[in-house]
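Q: Given only this backbone (456 positions), what sequence would you predict?
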């Protein structure tokens, strides 16, 4: 019993001694915490990766003092818990980080131009091993659209952009052809839709006499329109760069310069603004695919009046053709022939035309073909080889380039346009690498199958 009691007493004394030591250790830890709370802690700056700046220099003026109270002790304990660090480690405490948060600046990407090579000379190194020979290649810089200058137009309160087709522009500049005008309309429709302007179109030109929307104003308000539109400027630049051809030299696409679009915007910014309107003429190629509602708009714009409708169907009846049931062979030999400054064809060119017409007729033996050309001489020559072709012999004219515009010639030119528009297919041959705007934009507007071959 005594031995048992002595054992219990020893255990009691050991427990009491251990509790005393534990209490002393707790007091020591508490004092250590108090010491750290009373100390002065420098505020440190942080790098972008939230680590302390190793180059930080302690400044006597850059100190924050933490007060000694239970809230501070609690704060310290929370920091210890969250950081999982021992009390013997120095803790950089930031009491107010508001002034030290570094805002990362936005880095705007810089436009970089990369050189691109166009192999205009199809050179085969496997054929000729002489590497000392010069290989000519065009080097150009890739182009970008820069639309930020449109803001200048907004600052000038511009809302409306008007495309005006007339005989003369400021500084006696002459317009381009009718096909070019249609092309420029499509460009402006796309441009205004993209930048939220209102497009308008005015035809103050002798061809207006044969258009439903413009014939009355042309006859009754001719002098007024002339006064209002006498200072309209023409944007003479064109965005055509090159054409893409297939193996048979048919034009399958057009390469357009984006830089010219930027020049167009800059040009608009320098034009006078009249009651939120800008007036201009352009013949730019549209950059995007032509939308169906834009085609409908242009068809409405070019709707013939009753005089022109009667004239078209009279001529179809005279040559025995029905609307929508004939195809067209269209030959564009060049402005020299259209303006009658030349009537002589080179023999090699004429032979090529004969071969091409023969191939078209051979591929489509059942079709009725109407021959339309920019001169009557080529019609006479071809009819000797192909007597079954339908032909209308009328004196036509170029709608631009300062040509003297006689009413009947303008009417005959519009007749050709509407004969194209009423066909079921158009096979065009052109002396221009950019094609024939007269037939191409007619086909595009009225949804007619179209092909165009470049014959130099």
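A: Predicted residues:
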């Amino acid at each position: 019993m005594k031995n048992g009691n002595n054992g219990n007493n020893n255990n009691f004394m050991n427990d009491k001694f251990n509790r005393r030591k534990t209490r002393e250790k707790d007091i020591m830890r508490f004092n250590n915490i108090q010491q750290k709370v009373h100390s002065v802690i420098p505020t440190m700056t942080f790098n972008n990766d939230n680590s302390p700046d190793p180059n930080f220099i302690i400044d006597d003026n850059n100190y924050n003092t933490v007060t000694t109270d239970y809230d501070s002790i609690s704060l310290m304990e929370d920091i210890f818990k969250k950081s999982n660090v021992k009390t013997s480690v120095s803790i950089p405490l930031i009491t107010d980080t508001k002034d030290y948060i570094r805002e990362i600046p936005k880095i705007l990407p810089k436009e970089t131009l990369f050189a691109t090579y166009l192999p205009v000379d199809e050179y085969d190194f496997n054929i000729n091993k002489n590497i000392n020979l010069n290989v000519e290649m065009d080097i150009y810089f890739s182009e970008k659209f820069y639309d930020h200058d449109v803001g200048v137009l907004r600052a000038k309160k511009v809302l409306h952009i008007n495309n005006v087709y007339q005989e003369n522009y400021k500084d006696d500049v002459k317009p381009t052809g009718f096909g070019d005008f249609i092309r420029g309309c499509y460009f402006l429709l796309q441009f205004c839709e993209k930048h939220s302007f209102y497009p308008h179109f005015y035809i103050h030109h002798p061809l207006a006499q044969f258009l439903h929307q413009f014939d009355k104003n042309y006859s009754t308000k001719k002098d007024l329109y002339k006064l209002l539109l006498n200072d309209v400027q023409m944007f003479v630049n064109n965005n055509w760069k090159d054409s893409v051809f297939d193996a048979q030299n048919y034009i399958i696409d057009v390469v357009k310069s984006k830089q010219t679009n930027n020049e167009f915007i800059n040009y608009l910014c320098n034009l006078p603004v009249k009651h939120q309107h800008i007036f201009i003429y352009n013949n730019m190629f549209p950059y995007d695919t032509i939308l169906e509602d834009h085609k409908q708009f242009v068809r409405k714009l070019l709707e013939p009046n009753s005089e022109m409708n009667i004239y078209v169907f009279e001529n179809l009846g005279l040559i025995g053709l029905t609307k929508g049931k004939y195809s067209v062979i269209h030959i564009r030999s060049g402005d020299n022939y259209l303006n009658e400054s030349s009537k002589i064809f080179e023999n090699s060119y004429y032979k090529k035309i004969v071969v091409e017409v023969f191939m078209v007729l051979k591929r489509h033996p059942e079709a009725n073909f109407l021959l339309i050309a920019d001169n009557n001489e080529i019609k006479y020559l071809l009819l000797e080889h192909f007597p079954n072709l339908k032909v209308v012999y009328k004196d036509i004219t170029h709608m631009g380039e300062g040509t003297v515009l006689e009413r009947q010639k303008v009417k005959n030119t519009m007749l050709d346009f509407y004969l194209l528009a009423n066909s079921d297919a158009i096979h065009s041959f052109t002396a221009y690498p950019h094609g024939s705007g007269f037939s191409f934009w007619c086909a595009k507007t009225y949804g007619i199958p179209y092909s165009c071959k470049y014959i130099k």
